[in-house]
Design goal:
alpha/beta, four-stranded parallel sheet, three-stranded antiparallel sheet, 5 helices, 26% helix
Length: 171
C-alpha cells in the first residue's frame, strides 16, 4: 500500500459473510473489495498493457521499445498496432518478438481506430499508451504507477508529468 515504506496504509483480509479485502489509510476512506484469489493477485501484481500504435516509425520505435523493456516492473503485456508501415517498422518490432504479446499490421482509420484495436486485445488491469517517439522517464515508471493504483484503489486514472526532449537532446 505504501509508496514510501511507511505503514500508513494496511491491507486486511476479513472473513465475514462475504470475504473481502479491506484497505485502510488515514488519508482516504476505507475501501472493501470483494475478495477472491484472482482479485487479490491482480491487486498485488496487476498486469500492465502497453499499447503502441505506429505508422512508419522505424527511426524512433526501438528507443521506445527499450524504455518499456528496461522497466523494473515485469508483469507487462505489450501490444503493437501498426497501420501498414513500409519503412521497416515491423522488422524493428519483430527483433523484440519474445516480449511482444500481439502485433496487428493492417490499414486503419487513424490513430484512435488503432488505439481501439489495441484496447480490444488488452488483458491488463492498467492500460498505458506509449507513442513510438516517446520514452518512459526512467526504469521505475510502471512500479510507481502500480503503487499509485494500490494506494488509491478507486482511482480510474493515474498520470504524471512529462519532460519534453528535442532530437538534439535539449530539454
Amino acid at each position: 500500500c505504501s509508496t514510501n515504506g511507511s505503514k500508513s496504509c494496511s491491507v486486511e483480509l476479513t472473513k465475514d459473510a462475504e470475504t473481502k479485502i479491506k484497505i485502510s489509510n488515514p488519508n482516504w476512506t476505507d475501501v472493501s473489495i470483494p475478495y477472491d484469489d484472482k482479485t487479490f493477485r491482480e491487486y498485488l501484481n496487476p498486469k500492465i498493457t502497453v499499447i503502441t500504435v505506429c505508422l512508419n516509425s522505424a527511426l524512433t520505435i526501438e528507443r521506445s521499445i527499450k524504455s518499456v523493456l528496461s522497466q523494473t516492473y515485469k508483469n507487462i503485456e505489450y501490444i503493437f498496432v501498426d497501420g501498414g508501415s513500409n519503412d521497416g517498422t515491423l522488422d524493428v518490432i519483430k527483433k523484440y518478438n519474445k516480449y511482444v504479446t500481439h502485433i496487428i499490421s493492417e490499414k486503419d482509420n487513424g490513430i484512435y481506430d488503432a488505439m481501439n484495436k489495441g484496447l480490444r486485445l488488452a488483458k491488463g488491469t492498467i492500460v498505458y499508451f506509449l507513442n513510438t517517439d516517446d520514452l518512459l522517464y526512467d526504469e521505475s515508471v510502471f512500479e510507481t504507477v502500480v503503487k499509485a493504483f494500490q494506494r488509491f484503489p478507486l482511482a480510474d486514472v493515474v498520470y504524471g508529468n512529462a519532460r519534453l526532449v528535442y532530437e538534439d537532446g535539449e530539454k
